[in-house]
Specification:
Helix content: 40-55%
Oligomer: single chain
Structural class: alpha/beta
Number of helices: 26
Shape: globular
């Protein structure tokens, strides 16, 4: 034990030192032969596209709290780190980087481009590793994985081939979300919708027999070039007699039929719907139901193709303008309305996506989803908070086939080889050299890569060595919990559950904890455009990792987003200073320390030991229930308020008496338990300070989590000491209200008999000179009511001018009443209650309560002065 301790908390001096120590000792690397029960987590792998953000910091902090907690509870813990190759995101980032240098991937070619991306990947993987280390994550770096590493690539191929052979992977024409900028397909979940100001065009489609017309309404008139029907609802009285009639497609001249289909909404536009099966997902389904022709009018760069007649070569928006002009010129355009509507954008480059009919590879999802639905319905997998189960299930009940092919170069290339001689499709886990059907060497591999989420879906078992039957897989699968954000429940969580049951026959994890979204202090989403992002690495550099971690945990209430203000981190830097200074005080007062039994306890000793046990119980249960904020708040309040502000202050005089050894032992006992409870939240400072206490053990990281000791629970002593605290607070409050410094000694009177021990606590903690026991109120005194029976009087004598003080306090009450009235008016305003966010309303209520409490306290003092 090195008990030399610096005068101030300096995170830069301790954080790197202790992380290196933990790694050297191998604390984060469990051994398979270890017979203790296991606890395992796989990290949601960050994308290799840049720095980690505050959302990652929260995610990593919460996982580390769980892992450190379980490690201290005697579990063999494994937390697997790794990174995601992030196909479209990484390729887009590298392309933009190359564009600045005047280079294009097409000019470089696939092989050279991939070399550059691999260099990028290796650089960013190192950066991410250093960032995760800086946060203090106790991951096992000896088991670090990457979604494109050799083992995971092997797993991906095995899964693809297996699903293909079962008939669950197929190639088909399907409406897909096409990004013309990234030149690839996006899954439905990769499309972000933004509200746009748009126009609704009303167009006349004349009947082929010249007996009239039907009017349709559309937001995308350019797609009419691919129309192959007009749909009306079969029960729409206006149109049901027109079903089967033919119309002439304006500008094109093609005859198309009016069909009856339930998808046509009688309330939208005119109730008549133009049907473009190749360019709208709903129209595609109508086209399948009615066996319509599918006419594609777009090239992949969103210019009009040869099916667009005279509009060929025009960009989609240029075509829209030209078509509207021609419709107006030829008398087909009835009117244009301004509307607001939702438009899909690429989640990476923000380009407006276009639904296109294309040949793509799909996974048939219905059969895979069945087992994953039952798992959540029957409680095999539990979501925290519970409401996310409904979100998950609703999506799973309506699941659509998953388009897994992407027109990219970076990623897992689809393991299919087309024979150029006989046309056979070869599907294999290893590279195919000759056609399995005709023996030809003339083979061409599919150009596309798999959706990034295909490899991510295998993460809980592929990272443990699957498809090999490794010891890690036997020992650590299934994992215990997944900690992730709500935005990837469909992308990732659902797919991991499906793949876990399909390939392991077992759930991938028992619990799913959906953490909060970290917003700025105003509740806005952090974004580059707003410039309101908070960089966790900058925070760590300025304040230390521990204050940042503790702040995030303290704010991580289930089901509520985090509105992060730097001042909260500053406050918790002060908390770290408090922990440091309190421990320093104890260490500096351990002269001649020797262990003695915790017996012959005084009231304050019994109180602090009892409160320690209650705190252990609350913190333990809260972490087990993923109530990180409750656990953090409990240990914060205990350490700052109870240990520092009360027990240490009460103990100071006793450190100079024959009770010194007992008090020293109680301080070491309580500090030991407190630092252990704090360790999962603040690993660095707790390790530094714990090492300086006279305790056995190599590291707090592998020390035993505190257990409740019933012999140290003293309910009566807690109640008794709480009453004394109320008396002391009453004295302090009177001093504060009448502007007497807390350091000024006062005389008090009280209508309760007190023991010598009780008197000593009051004299020490409230700076009291003399205590009189009396039932009558002394002259020139202010009183505080402690409960229905106890009243304490602070004798003010010549310390203040009573009349002036009454006048000053009365004016203060007037001002506070005005403030209170403002808040009352706000809370009785219907508009405010209906329009303001819940947290603002609660904050306003809290401010009003605080003011009303203040008014009552001051009134009591004024009344007692009169």
């Amino acid at each position: 034990m090195n008990n030399e301790i610096g005068t101030r908390y300096d995170p830069q001096k301790i954080e790197t030192k202790w992380y290196k120590f933990w790694l050297e000792k191998g604390y984060f690397t469990p051994k398979n032969e270890d017979s203790r029960p296991k606890y395992s987590i796989v990290i949601p792998p960050p994308n290799i596209t840049g720095k980690i953000h505050m959302g990652h910091a929260l995610n990593i902090t919460l996982q580390d709290i769980l892992v450190r907690f379980k490690r201290m509870n005697g579990f063999k813990t494994l937390w697997v780190p790794g990174e995601d190759h992030a196909g479209i995101a990484t390729q887009t980032a590298v392309e933009k980087f190359l564009e600045k240098k005047g280079q294009k991937r097409e000019e470089l070619g696939r092989e050279k481009f991939l070399e550059i991306v691999w260099d990028w990947a290796n650089t960013y993987r190192k950066t991410i590793k250093n960032q995760i280390m800086a946060i203090g994550a106790s991951v096992d770096w000896t088991r670090e994985r990457f979604t494109l590493d050799e083992g995971l690539s092997k797993a991906v191929r095995k899964v693809f081939v297996s699903l293909y052979k079962k008939g669950l992977i197929y190639k088909g024409k399907y409406i897909v979300n096409w990004c013309p900028r990234c030149k690839t397909v996006l899954s439905d979940e990769e499309v972000e919708y933004h509200e746009h100001d748009g126009k609704l065009y009303y167009i006349k489609y004349p009947f082929a027999d010249s007996t009239g017309e039907i009017v349709i309404a559309t937001t995308r008139p350019e797609t009419m070039l691919g129309d192959t029907a007009v749909a009306v609802h079969p029960s729409d009285e206006r149109y049901k007699d027109l079903i089967g009639k033919e119309v002439i497609l304006p500008l094109v001249g093609r005859k198309i039929k009016i069909i009856g289909d339930v998808h046509a909404d009688p309330k939208f536009g005119t109730g008549a719907l133009k049907v473009t099966p190749a360019h709208d997902p709903n129209d595609f389904l109508i086209g399948q139901r009615h066996n319509l022709e599918f006419i594609n009018i777009f090239n992949e760069d969103m210019t009009i193709n040869e099916n667009g007649g005279k509009y060929k070569g025009l960009d989609r928006y240029e075509a829209r303008k030209a078509i509207v002009e021609d419709l107006e010129k030829e008398g087909y355009l009835l009117k244009i309305e301004n509307i607001k509507h939702s438009v899909g954008h690429c989640y990476r480059c923000d380009t407006v996506i276009e639904p296109l009919l294309m040949d793509q590879w799909f996974v048939s999802m219905k059969s895979l989803a069945e087992r994953a639905i039952k798992a959540v319905e029957h409680g095999e997998i539990t979501f925290y908070p519970k409401r996310w189960e409904k979100v998950y299930l609703n999506w799973m009940y309506e699941i659509r086939d998953w388009c897994i092919s992407r027109q990219l170069w970076w990623g897992h290339r689809i393991p299919i080889w087309y024979c150029q001689d006989c046309g056979h499709i070869n599907v294999s886990e290893t590279d195919v050299q000759k056609c399995e059907k005709c023996g030809s060497n003339n083979l061409k591999q599919d150009e596309d890569v798999l959706d990034t989420w295909f490899s991510s879906a295998l993460w809980p078992f592929s990272t443990l060595g699957w498809p090999e039957e490794t010891e890690d897989l036997k020992t650590f699968y299934p994992t215990d919990v997944l900690v992730t954000g709500f935005d990837i429940i469909f992308f990732w969580v659902a797919r991991m559950i499906m793949m876990g049951y399909e390939f392991m026959g077992e759930k991938p994890f028992k619990d799913v904890y959906i953490h909060q979204l970290v917003r700025d202090k105003y509740g806005r989403k952090m974004s580059k455009s707003l410039g309101n992002g908070i960089d966790p690495l900058e925070i760590i550099e300025k304040y230390g990792a521990d204050p940042m971690r503790f702040t995030l945990a303290l704010m991580a209430a289930q089901g509520r987003d985090i509105n992060l203000d730097i001042k909260y981190i500053e406050n918790n830097k002060k908390f770290a200073n408090k922990i440091w200074n309190a421990t320093r005080f104890v260490i500096l007062n351990l002269e001649d320390f020797k262990e003695v039994p915790l017996e012959n306890l005084k009231l304050s000793d019994q109180w602090i030991l009892s409160r320690t046990q209650k705190t252990i119980k609350t913190v333990t249960e809260a972490i087990e229930n993923y109530e990180f904020n409750i656990a953090a708040k409990e240990i914060y309040n205990f350490f700052w308020d109870e240990l520092c502000d009360w027990y240490i202050e009460a103990a100071k005089p006793r450190l100079k008496t024959e009770e010194k050894n007992l008090v020293q032992n109680i301080l070491v006992y309580v500090l030991d338990k407190s630092l252990k409870l704090l360790h999962p939240f603040m690993p660095f400072i707790t390790e530094e300070l714990w090492q300086k206490l006279p305790l056995s053990g190599e590291s707090i990281t592998v020390s035993e989590w505190p257990k409740v000791e019933n012999k140290f629970i003293f309910e009566d002593s807690e109640s008794h000491f709480n009453l004394l605290m109320s008396i002391i607070r009453g004295i302090r409050n009177i001093k504060a209200e009448v502007n007497i410094p807390q350091s000024t000694k006062v005389n008090i009177s009280i209508n309760k008999d007190l023991s010598d021990e009780e008197k000593l606590y009051i004299e020490t903690l409230a700076n009291v000179e003399k205590i009189n026991i009396t039932n009558s109120k002394p002259e020139k005194s202010a009183s505080a009511y402690i409960d229905n029976e106890i009243e304490v009087y602070v004798e003010l004598g010549e310390l203040i001018d009573i009349e002036s003080e009454i006048e000053r306090l009365s004016k203060k009450i007037e001002k506070l009443e005005k403030d209170a009235e403002k808040f009352r008016n706000k809370l009785s305003n219907k508009k405010f209650l209906e329009g303001a966010p819940e947290e603002i309303i609660n904050e306003t209520k809290e401010k009003l309560n605080n003011i009303e409490e203040q008014i009552n306290k001051i009134r009591t003092v004024v009344d007692s002065l009169k």
